[in-house]
Amino acid sequence: MKYVSTRGGGPQKRFCDILLEGLADDGGLYLPTHYPQIDAATLARWRTLSYAELAFEILSLYIDDIPAEDLRRLTAQTYRAEVFGGRPEITPLHTLEPGLHLQELSNGPTLAFKDMAMQLLGALFEYELGRRGEALNILGATSGDTGSAAEYAMRGRAGVRVFMLSPHGRMSAFQQAQMFSLQDANIHNLAVRGVFDDCQDIVKAVSNDLGFKKSRRIGTVNSINWARLLAQVVYYFAGYFAATKSNDERVSFTVPSGNFGNVCAGHVARQMGLPIAQLVVATNENDVLDEFFRTGRYAPRGAAQTHATSSPSMDISKASNFERFIADLFGRDGARVQSAFTSPSFELSAAERASVEGRYAFASGRSSHADRLATIRTCQQRYGRLVDPHTADGLKVALERRQAGVPMIVLETALPAKFAETLREATGQEPPRPAGLDGIEALPKRVTVIDNDVQAVRAFIDAHVDAR
Ligand SMILES: Cc1ncc(COP(=O)(O)O)c(C=O)c1O
Ligand SMILES: N[C@@H](CCOP(=O)(O)O)C(=O)O
Asked: What is the average pLDDT value for the chain, to the nearest integer?
């Protein structure tokens, strides 16, 4: 499989090159030249596989520069029940009522769905850097969950150093403690005076400075990196198999969304032929994506219009991965994608809007603080299940958008323990904490507060890496 930039520039590349490269040199995101098509016989065979075997099969379609036996070993080592909360299914389905399910994606080490891809990414980085005898300095941006998942996946890995930017004061106390309590020498936390989008802009600006990127060997763990999305495609297949008995059935997914990485993986699964009826995008009050799916107009917002909400990991107004979907919608017209994503906003034609809903089967909805609290309460009372604020946003929208006769799977993107304040407000109770995490907020913290300034981040990296 070869990969191309959404903006059409540069040569086609192989998987391991784009794994280490992250952002394409023309500022675009990598996509495979085409989506492999899954026929009925293959889908039937995959239904019987374990999660690790399924991951191997799907990854093999996109990775032809890692020997099969090595890839099989990496997926088997990554997707073990011990790493994912002792659950052999890895992403078990929890049925709330007939036809309405939660797919558990948050049983990994940092209690959010980011572990699903990040654990594999850590193994892939170590493998490829070892093969090349190279090192990588990862520059990442987080609104709360990517950061801790990346740091837990990369700590102690040979050849990898992490610089993680987060919006100062905007993550939950638990999320801050998860990241800032790490004392590993290869982990650096930078709290930026700004919002998540500012952090992501810095990551892209540093990556677009090609001289700096190459000399300092800068890579990325955000969903900028195609490997993140690829790993996420696997659980759409796993969720489909768990919710259905036959491959003639269809299901829909509702995905709590911010940077559009998770639902973009669902889009890829659907393009491969997975029988998905609808992909429902759920946003919080930062509803740029919902506005797009309702109106056909994409208008990212600035920091002043980006609200600090009680589902903080989705406080995003400039969804990076959205560019991948638009590249497909625009028929991979790189020049048009480039123009759209370097303009303040863009608008679809009527035919394209119809295609978003029809051919690509997207729908959307939004949720507010009051909706979130009500959904957490109702879910607990009606189904005996506590959900986190982001999953609650998904559930609220799923209940509005589900279609008769089509099972709906809501992706559970984090555990309630990460957002105790909102859970207390909704239920009056402390959410349960997995063993070993009591008192994490009181641990000593290692973090540098920094201005929203690309040059300041470059200087910090320079002070901490060997640039030779
Ligand atoms: C808990 C949680 N839910 C939902 C999202 C949104 O996912 P995405 O950015 O892939 O759209 C995030 C952040 O990515 C998250 O951390
Ligand atoms: N919500 C994310 C934001 C970064 O998204 P990513 O998928 O691009 O890594 C977070 O929790 O950090």
From this structure: 96
Lowest-pLDDT range of 202-206, 320-324, 464-468:
464-468
Q: What's the rounded Cα separation, in Å, for the pair 212 and 200? A: 17
Residues 6+ away with beta carbon under 8 Å from 428: none
CB distance 170 to 312 below 8 Å:
yes
Please provide the DSSP assignment of 21-62 as one string.
Answer: H-S-TTS--EEESSPPPPPHHHHHHHTTS-HHHHHHHHHHHH
Cα 259 to middle of ligand 1, angstroms: 7
Ligand 1 atom closest to Cα of residue 414 = 1
Q: What are the backbone angles phi and psi of residue 102, rounded to the nearest 5°? A: -105, 135
Torsion (CA) 16, 20, 25, 27 in degrees, nearest 10 = 110
What's the one-letter identity of residue 370?
A: A
ipTM of the prediction: 0.99
Q: Residue-wise over 225-263: b if at least 16 C-beta within 10 A, else e?
A: bbbbbbbbbbbbbbbbbbbeeebeebbbbbbbbbbbbbb
Sheet order of strands, 136-141 included? 218-219, 136-141, 160-167, 187-192, 448-450
Name the percent of the chain in helix, strand, coil, to the closest 5.
Answer: 45, 15, 40
Please state the separation of Cα 249 from the chain's center in Å: 27
Q: What is the pLDDT of residues 234-277, one digit of tens each?
A: 999 999 999 999 999 999 999 999 999 999 999 999 999 999 99
Tokens describing residue 24:
């394409």
pTM here?
A: 0.97
- CB neighbour list of residue 417: distance below 8 Å, 6 or more residues apart: 111, 174, 431, 432, 433, 434, 437
User: pLDDT tens-digit profile of 88-120?
Assistant: 999 999 999 999 999 999 999 999 999 999 999
Give every CB contact of residue 381 below 8 A, 6+ residues apart in sequence. none
% of residues, the chain, pLDDT over 90: 96
How far is residue 151 CA from its own chain's centroid?
15
CA 390 to ligand 1 center in whole angstroms: 8
Around ligand 1, the residues with Cβ closer than 6 Å are 112, 144-145, 223, 256-262, 313-314, 390, 413-414
CA 39 – ligand 1 centroid, Å: 31
Question: The tokens of 249 are what?
Answer: 């059935």
Give the pLDDT of residue 158: 81
Taking the C-alpha atoms of residue 107 and residue 463, their distance in angstroms, rounded to an integer, is 36
- Percent of the chain with pLDDT strictly greater than 70: 99
Could you give the domains of the chain? Answer: 93-111+226-427 (3.40.50.1100)
Mean pLDDT of 391-409: 98
Question: Could you confirm whether 13 is annotated as catalytic?
Answer: no
The more confidently predicted of residues 466 and 10 is 10
